[in-house]
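Students often ask why inverse folding is considered easier than folding. One informal answer: many sequences map to the same fold, so there is more than one right answer. In these notes we will look at a single instance of the problem. The structure comes first.
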């Protein structure tokens, strides 16, 4: 069965979705991502959907669920790379995506996450090795 890779980058988790998600894969991503936030203590989740051309109401709900569950686990969620057609579809479907922050690209998304968690937590896994 296919899995979407979840990469850890310091206090953040990065998910790059390169295919259009079918329902079972989206549900598995939701469960895997929330487990990783809990397991790693991640403070932010960045989801790159730049390769996604279609988002239906189910996928919109999954993104909203990920943001809500991550927030309960003290992590912010940022979605980046949204295509204009996807944004239009989400609005037309009436999906507000509460709790989901957005940015144009991964770089701006990482900056947004860093600003959300505060500078004192960005380097919590760096040691003071001189």
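Output (designed amino acids):
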């Amino acid at each position: 069965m296919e899995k979407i890779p979840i990469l850890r980058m310091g206090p953040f988790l990065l998910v790059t979705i390169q295919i259009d998600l079918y329902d079972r894969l989206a549900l598995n991503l939701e469960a895997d991502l929330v487990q990783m936030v809990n397991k790693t203590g991640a403070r932010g989740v960045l989801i790159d959907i730049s390769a996604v051309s279609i988002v239906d109401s189910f996928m919109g709900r999954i993104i909203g669920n990920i943001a809500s569950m991550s927030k309960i686990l003290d992590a912010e969620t940022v979605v980046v790379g949204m295509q204009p057609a996807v944004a239009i579809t989400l609005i037309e479907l009436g999906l507000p995506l509460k709790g989901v922050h957005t940015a144009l690209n991964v770089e701006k998304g990482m900056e947004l996450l860093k600003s959300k968690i505060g500078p004192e937590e960005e380097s919590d896994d760096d040691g003071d090795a001189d």
